[in-house]
Specification:
six-stranded mixed sheet, 11 helices, 20 strands, elongated
């Protein structure tokens, strides 16, 4: 068995590894080469890994130079890996780690990798392939998405014969080819790290804390993105701050004609993102569109100028006035003639209000308006005061982007 060491010149600074660990010395990149897909009748002949020591990244490869060295390879690797706490890999949860676990069980070797946190780049991206606009999340596909042009002369499967030929004749060219393929795969993970910016953005949007925003409040909160609190407007309270992953930089109305020539209105929003994305992405849902490119995103959201209804919860305290098509509290409606009023029901206990409205898919913004009681579509009024609130528009941007991602 051979152990090969070298310095890695590729930089991992394209992604902040402190999001993964406070100390890069805790992180171990890993990739294995095998003689087949099944651990029951195949061997691990090469384990490549990258690790941080002495202020630089290093590559170490454990190579079975002869037949019958798989157990020694695993023993040496586990002795080396026992000091790490985080594993970083591509699709290792489905292949590399189960393969190693099976072999450790067979040789009764303690598997120190089980004690580590496993971070699978593939697994972090796979749920979002539609919003990323890729057909799958294979390593080659993600490399193309990120603009990485890396051409392998051989695939892992094709190298099986190369390894078997090497065992027969110990040809140095074959030896170098085997090591180079694995080394390129390990070093290639450094270039894949920026793909995690998408995972971070999507999770920040989807895992947002629920913020209930009263659009009729006398003052609104300010918004904080990262460590920066935006300069508040006149109707924002400096004593109330909400944390959001993105913030609205510019909001404006846009008028256009649809395919049928009907006049339509929409809100255009320019959004500041927490990171600079290496490749552009976009998506749409329920008439809302977004495109993210670099450190900004653009949102297009339908604006409805119409009349909607606000439904009161305590309908037993209201009368419905059919002539006026609205409900009034009994303390006021009791003075109306009995012939002009009836007991309100849940579906008739409303007041009507014309205005400009935006859609929402959870009751984040209140008061909530609807077309009819049974209608599941929710809306809130876009008032002049709300238009001035960066916090409100930023929160709405989070709400819309999260909705598009969920529907992708």
């Amino acid at each position: 068995m051979k152990i090969i060491d070298e310095i890695i010149t590729e930089s991992a600074e394209s992604y902040p590894l402190e999001r993964i660990s406070d100390s890069p010395e805790d992180i171990l990149f890993i990739d294995i080469e095998t003689t087949g897909l099944s651990p029951k009748n195949s061997l691990i002949y090469l384990i490549g890994c990258a690790y941080y020591r002495n202020e630089t990244w290093n590559l170490r490869q454990f190579f079975s130079d002869s037949r019958g060295e798989e157990e020694d390879l695993l023993l040496s690797f586990m002795d080396f890996a026992k000091d790490f706490h985080i594993l970083l890999h591509f699709n290792g949860n489905r292949f590399d780690l189960p393969f190693i676990e099976f072999k450790c069980d067979r040789f009764h070797i303690k598997n120190h990798l089980e004690e580590c946190e496993s971070i699978d780049i593939y697994k972090r991206l796979a749920p979002y392939k539609n919003i990323l606009g890729v057909p799958d999340c294979k390593q080659k596909t993600i490399e193309l998405f990120l603009g990485i042009d890396r051409t392998d002369v051989y695939s892992g499967g094709e190298l099986i014969k190369v390894y078997k030929d090497y065992l027969l004749n110990k040809d140095e060219k074959l030896y170098n080819l085997l090591l180079l393929h694995n080394a390129d795969d390990v070093r290639g993970m450094f270039m894949l790290l920026p793909a995690l910016f998408y995972h971070d953005l999507f999770r920040a949007l989807l895992d947002r804390k629920v913020v209930l925003f009263r659009t009729d409040a006398p003052e609104y909160p300010q918004v904080r993105s990262g460590f920066c609190i935006d300069e508040g407007s006149d109707n924002e309270s400096p004593d109330a701050v909400i944390d959001l992953p993105v913030r609205a930089m510019k909001v404006q109305a846009n008028y256009y004609k649809d395919f049928d020539g009907k006049q339509k209105e929409e809100i255009l929003m320019k959004i500041s993102l927490p990171d600079t994305l290496p490749s552009s992405i976009g998506g749409s849902a329920d008439g809302c569109f977004f495109k993210a490119e670099g450190a900004t995103a653009t949102l297009r959201i339908p604006l409805y100028e119409t009349e909607l209804k606000y439904f009161y919860n305590n309908y037993r305290d209201y009368y419905y006035l059919p002539a006026e098509d609205q409900a009034l509290h009994k303390s006021v409606a009791q003075f109306a003639p009995k012939s002009h009023r009836v007991q309100a029901t849940a579906s008739t206990c409303y007041t009507r209000k014309p205005g400009q409205y935006l859609a929402e898919w959870d009751a984040i913004f209140s008061p909530v308006f609807k077309k009819d009681y049974a209608d599941k579509s929710l809306f809130f009024e876009l008032t002049d005061e709300l238009k001035k609130s960066r916090a409100a528009m930023s929160l709405y941007a989070v709400h819309v982007m999260a909705h598009i991602i969920e529907r992708a």
